[in-house]
């Protein structure tokens, strides 16, 4: 069986209202309480506050992953706003649409970071931003673009691309023919082997199976994500939703590894397991992971 490999792990944190998000399996998540239904309003309000208090009147850009996994660090500059708090956090319905509108009102361009969500991983769409009904001005992509071969790409409008001609830009590795032919082969394979559809089918199955574990274990606080882009948030108990401490996370992760599956973690407290396996895995592979993860959770609960 192909191991479940995570491309990278960073400690990052969910947005301030993420805890109020419902236990969701699909995006957009339904809202179960009044508080959760207000999440979008509160996120937008917070963004407006950032615009009025923390950045210049005109901003350069807004950088956001369609599902947040990474950190903001790589995108920050003094007049650029970044959303990238991590923990596999999904935005409330319409947030990105409203955020893009506010950014454009401030003169900024909207950048979708598709490094992790792109190339069909979320199942329903080839690009993560499509699920939000927005059209970015710039899209950045990497990782899945060449199935691990070092490659990245930026796609933008002609107008923005023209502005690059004002200065000299070059990259030693830019346009590398080997990388380009690998990227092209990967695109063919995604299409021919219906990899995006596989992400939807196997990912939905995996989300459903993980949701059963959520109902079984007190320490499994939330299962969320889309396709094969899944976060499992671990808590000390479901009432407090306090993050499961790092030692406990490590024990479960190591146990899972010893039984043959690699997973990663993220979120500011490192409390969210990141399940982003190769996009070609089968339902049987997913079931193997669920059995292993179930065992690791059981072992931890017994030891406690
Ligand atoms: C979502 C996301 N965006 C951006 C980056 C940064 O990519 P790079 O390390 O190639 O600058 C990463 C890298 O891990 C990522 O996961």
Automatic annotation (TrEMBL):
Question: What Enzyme Commission number(s) appear in the record?
Answer: 2.6.1.18, 2.6.1.40, 2.6.1.44
Give the matching Gene3D superfamilies: Aspartate Aminotransferase, domain 1 (3.90.1150.10), Type I PLP-dependent aspartate aminotransferase-like (Major domain) (3.40.640.10)
GO MF terms listed in the record are: (R)-3-amino-2-methylpropionate-pyruvate transaminase activity; alanine-glyoxylate transaminase activity; beta-alanine:pyruvate transaminase activity; pyridoxal phosphate binding
Question: Where do transmembrane segments lie in this chain?
Answer: none
Subcellular location, record wording: Mitochondrion
Reaction it catalyzes: (2S)-2-aminobutanoate + glyoxylate = 2-oxobutanoate + glycine; 2-oxopentanoate + N(omega),N(omega)-dimethyl-L-arginine = 5-(3,3-dimethylguanidino)-2-oxopentanoate + L-2-aminopentanoate; 2-oxohexanoate + N(omega),N(omega)-dimethyl-L-arginine = L-2-aminohexanoate + 5-(3,3-dimethylguanidino)-2-oxopentanoate; (R)-3-amino-2-methylpropanoate + pyruvate = 2-methyl-3-oxopropanoate + L-alanine
The top EC class, named as a word, is transferase
- Primary role: Multifunctional aminotransferase with a broad substrate specificity. Catalyzes the conversion of glyoxylate to glycine using alanine as the amino donor. Catalyzes metabolism of not L- but the D-isomer of D-beta-aminoisobutyric acid to generate 2-methyl-3-oxopropanoate and alanine. Catalyzes the transfer of the amino group from beta-alanine to pyruvate to yield L-alanine and 3-oxopropanoate. Can metabolize NG-monomethyl-L-arginine (NMMA), asymmetric NG,NG-dimethyl-L-arginine (ADMA) and symmetric NG,N'G-dimethyl-L-arginine (SDMA).
Q: Which UniProt keywords apply?
A: Aminotransferase, Mitochondrion, Pyridoxal phosphate, Transferase, Transit peptide
Q: Which cofactor does it need?
A: pyridoxal 5'-phosphate
Which GO biological process entries does UniProt record here? glyoxylate catabolic process; L-alanine catabolic process, by transamination
The family annotation for this protein states:
Belongs to the class-III pyridoxal-phosphate-dependent aminotransferase family.
The principal location of this protein is mitochondrion
| Top-level taxon of the source organism | Eukaryota
- Full protein name: Alanine--glyoxylate aminotransferase 2, mitochondrial
One GO term describing the cellular component: mitochondrion
Self-association and partners = Homotetramer.
User: Do the record's keywords include Transferase?
Assistant: yes
